[in-house]
Amino acid sequence: MPYYSFDLVVGEEFKNQGGIILEDIEVASDRAEQLANELSQVNPDLQHRGCAVRVTDRDHKEVYRTPLDPVPSWQRFG
Q: Where is the DUF6894 domain (predicted)?
């Protein structure tokens, strides 16, 4: 199973939020979205600043990114 790392992205800075072994990128992206939601609730001043949570693989390649800003329901597709 692959290892994924999670970073809080603030501007050009990446702040390590830890890493974990997960089944696949789908599970890692779900975890990233949960982390983004938690960080935006705990630290609301990060919202509306373009902050995000990114996921990188074992080779430090970015494989997923999700913003901390909540997406309004009227902008969601699907």
A: 4-68
Domains of the chain: which residue ranges?
Answer: 3-70
Residues 6 or more apart whose CB falls under 8 angstroms from that of 68 comprise 36, 39, 40, 46, 47, 49, 51, 52, 53
What is the tens place of the pLDDT at every residue in 21-65?
A: 999 999 999 999 999 999 998 998 887 888 999 999 999 999 999
Residue 44: what pLDDT? 85
What distance in Å separates the CA atoms of residue 17 and residue 41, rounded to the nearest whole number? 16
Spacing of C-alpha 74 from chain mean position = 22
With contact defined as beta carbons under 8 Å apart, do 1 and 30 qualify? no
Decide if pLDDT at 66 tops 90.
yes
